[in-house]
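Human:
I keep going back and forth on a fold encoding question. Comparing notes only helps if you start from a blank page. Show me how you would write down a chain together with its backbone fold. Write it directly below this note and I will take it from there.

Assistant:
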Amino acid sequence: MNFTIFKTQWFRIARLGLALAVSVAPVCAQQAQHFTITDLGTLGGSFSLAYAVNNKGQVDGFSTLPGDAVFHSFVYENGRMIDLGTLGGPNSQSFSTLNDSTQVGGTAETSASDPNGEDFCGFGTHLICLGFVWHNGVMKRLSTLGGNNSQVAGVNDLGQVVGYAEKSAIDPGCLVPQALQFVPVVWNKGEIQALPLYPGDMDGFAVWINNVGDAVGASGICAAFDPRYAAPIQPQHALLWRNGKAIDLGNLGGEMNNGAFSINDRGQVVGASDLPGDTFQHAFIWQDGKMTDLGTLPGDVVSAAVAINNRGQVTGVSTDALGDIRGFLWQNGLMTDLNSLIPADSPWFVLHGFGINSVGQISGFAFNTETGEVHGIVLNPNTGLAQAGAAPGLQAATADERAAASAKARKLLQQRVRFGPFGVHLLGHR
């Protein structure tokens, strides 16, 4: 197996996997939605990840092929996984939103080596990579700002695309192998336009665009490649781009690792920010000019919020000091472990919630305790609601088993991917 590629891509899981968690308001005495799980399978390998789910229930993400040596983007619909291919190189991945017209964004390698020896997309191959939009079986490559590489991170229902692209200018602050400056961009009808950075910042990325045309992301300084952001950057300012202007959303007290990752059509923004001292990150929600710390699940130390739907429901991940991660759903001021909302006899342990659509379907990935594999999954809301008191009972009945499953998943990934406690390194507990 190509451990370098697997390692890099698993790290990228945290990128918008930087997504953090929640717990800010008193627990409301209300009903808790329970879910069933759909296993999306793989493209022939042993690993897959589901990132976004649109309002039609279609899902995008990426999966290993047979042999687990390369990754390809996929769209899952009507019970089958469609391989989107690449732009001529070995790898592609979709860590981005897909819209209701099944336009899928992502990044794919070409067959050409980067002339500067860069590894802009983190696949470990040092090939040029470009953002793409896939639609009706056709993968269309998108332009840069004069540099060699670009990445796509989101597509709205108007077909507007956001991501980040290299310019032709050398950034003297970058570390080898990165050489060129890169900035957040929007592609509109194929035309690329740079988005403004926070004053004084040199680099940045945009990761989500809503159906009003507002985009979110971050800017900062060039640094060593950080898998959490899938870019060689140290983000310092979480940004909202509205009407052509960059709005600084503030922070939770930290000077680094401040980024916005999703915005709904109501203008609510979620992301992650360092706390004072820049030791831990917490998820946040921003609305009406105010950033609120969403905290973590009980006993955890780091969290990240990755997606928010128009009902204000938030999904993401929370991690403990050992690096064990678990997905969460936040709504009405309460963060809930997704593992407490699935059947008690399920073989799945939900590691991350990456996306959520308007009807509450959640996409992510989970560890199967019977097969020992990690697959992309979709959580489907049950038609009936369970009483709020049922969720803690379900969680309590399987608490030891679920804790063991999380530890097994971490150890499995450490063994296969060959790196330290992924939940710690991955999510920013430094």
Residues 1-30, 385-398, 415-430 have pLDDT under 50 and may be disordered. Helices lie at 3-12, 390-397, 399-417, 422-427. The chain has four helices and 28 strands. The longest helix spans residues 399-417.
